[in-house]
Design a protein that fits this description.
Length: 501
């Protein structure tokens, strides 16, 4: 059903996709959530109405930087479409980010408007926004501004302009602002849809934060293929099962953590198919143990395709349903057409339309691309004779927990401020459910009382660290292992010591 892609020019915009899909299949469902649904025609109409409200009541125009920190809801998708209609620059912030990351994102992007959900899951986002000095706060959860579309300026015509600033921790304490265009996100979403071999009757699902770059890519996939998706504001099993079943979801997933949760729930229900309509789990963002692949296929009775991507390049490789079990279990899949992979000194480097334009910081951009214009991922890997990619390690000192990058250095710097911490090293350890778990290894002063994990997490919470970055394991050592030259901590020795099953 990829008739939308063939009808667009070389550099389409997200708004062009919305308009074209509404014209092709106006009455087909687009978004489903709880007892609500929205057709593609309604999606277009409501996006324009919200765009007019933002334009007239809040002064949002082409190029206005709008940050938003909202849960996965129909209203969030409408806001995204409305900003795309105006030609604003969007800066999505993951909802569980707190003062440190959120404040940096607002300052670095120079956001002129910050949309928040008010009090959500017990946390007051509006109060945080005001505390951080956001210039203009729009509190929106189930209501959005409305206006007359006749007041809007013409829609944007250039899909190559930077209109997205996503945030990734990378290897530094402060997040990096990743610059994307409509064209780069459309390239990623199109490649994802093609790899999944979608069918006319498929129904997808978005159970992860829509503010993740995967949210925009998934929206692109829905628009290109005219398929609906069920949105989950909060994902937890078994509570979410009713929605999967009642809407007849055929394609689900998110990351390794989601596969593990589905599998664990299936094991609680022997002899019963967890989601009768489910034919495929798909995702990426974290390592996938081969044994998990085989267990999912065997016990859930569906396919599993896993991919490799990052905020800078949301679609690098992806498994396909017609791949062999060996390749699906042991590799990250193959690159789509138009994605070049070069292995240089063991490092995976990339060039293609889905690659970001760089970072907000020009120095970071210069360091991220080699002389031939290939993006340096910092990941180590190799290509098989069949063109499948195997990842073997990372140059970057990051931890990937549930598909999110966590900077070890950021946590270490905060830990060093604790009076009972002499030196600290934070590492990622293999975890079947999360991909990796965060482990803090601490060398204490001689007279300090032994630290507990609860004390460490309480301290880090008080320092403003986001909940998803908190250590889940604490190890106390007499001395951290170091080399003999610069006395650098040898983290691989810590991983060997504490990473054993």
């Amino acid at each position: 059903m990829n008739d939308t892609a063939h009808s667009l020019g070389a550099s389409p915009t997200l708004w062009e996709l919305i308009e074209r899909r509404a014209a092709l299949t106006p009455d087909r469902p687009a978004l489903l959530q709880d007892d609500r649904s929205l057709t593609f025609a309604e999606l277009r109409q409501r996006c324009e109405s919200v765009a007019a409200g933002l334009h007239t009541a809040h002064g949002v125009g082409p190029g206005t930087v709008v940050a938003w920190q909202l849960p996965t809801r129909i209203e969030t998708v409408l806001l995204t479409g409305a900003l795309a209609r105006i030609g604003a620059v969007q800066s999505p912030v993951i909802p569980f980010c707190r003062d440190r990351e959120t404040g940096y994102a607002l300052r670095a992007s120079q956001a002129e408007l910050f949309a928040v959900p008010g009090v959500w899951r017990g946390f007051d986002h509006t109060e945080m926004a005001r505390r951080l000095g956001a210039p203009h706060v729009l509190e929106t959860y189930d209501r959005l501004p409305q206006g007359d579309p006749a007041t809007l300026p013409p829609p944007p015509a250039d899909g190559t302009a930077v209109r997205w600033i996503y945030w990734t921790s990378g290897t530094t304490s402060d997040p990096k602002g990743v610059l994307h265009t409509d064209r780069s996100l459309i390239a990623g979403g199109a490649c994802l849809a093609h790899a999944l071999r979608l069918r006319d009757d498929d129904i997808g699902s978005v159970a992860f934060p829509f503010a993740h770059i995967g949210g925009a890519d998934y929206l692109v996939m829905l628009l290109l293929y005219g398929m609906p998706a069920v949105l989950f504001e909060q994902f937890a099993l078994p509570d979410a099962l009713e929605a999967y079943r009642s809407h007849g979801v055929t394609v689900a997933g998110g990351s390794t953590a989601f596969y593990s949760m589905f599998l664990a729930e299936q094991r609680r229900r022997p002899g019963e198919k967890l989601i009768p309509t489910l034919r495929l789990l798909a995702g990426g963002g974290a390592p996938k143990p081969p044994e998990l692949y085989h267990a999912v296929v065997r016990e859930l009775g569906c396919g599993l395709v896993h991919g490799y991507g990052m905020t800078e390049v949301p679609m690098i490789t992806m498994g396909a349903p017609d791949d062999t079990d060996e390749n699906l279990a042991a590799t990250e899949g193959r690159p789509p057409e138009g994605m070049e992979i070069r292995i240089a000194d063991g490092e995976v480097r990339l060039r293609g339309e889905a690659v970001c334009r760089g970072y907000l910081d020009p120095e970071q951009t210069a360091a991220a691309f080699d002389s031939d214009g290939f993006f340096r991922t910092g990941d180590l890997g190799a290509l098989t004779p069949s063109g499948h990619l195997k990842l073997t390690g990372r140059l970057k000192d990051i931890i990937i927990r549930k598909g999110e990058n966590i900077s070890a250095r950021e946590i270490e710097e905060l830990l060093h401020g604790h009076p009972a911490v002499g030196e600290a090293a934070v590492i990622g350890l293999p975890d079947a459910d999360r991909g990796e778990r965060v482990c803090a290894v601490v060398e204490q002063p001689a007279d300090a009382p032994p630290l507990t994990l609860g004390e460490v997490t309480a301290y880090l919470r008080g320092a403003g660290l986001s909940v998803h970055k908190l250590p889940e394991q604490l190890e106390l050592v007499e001395a951290l292992p170091r080399n003999d030259t610069l006395r650098k901590v040898l983290k691989y020795k810590l991983r060997e010591r504490f990473g054993a099953p």
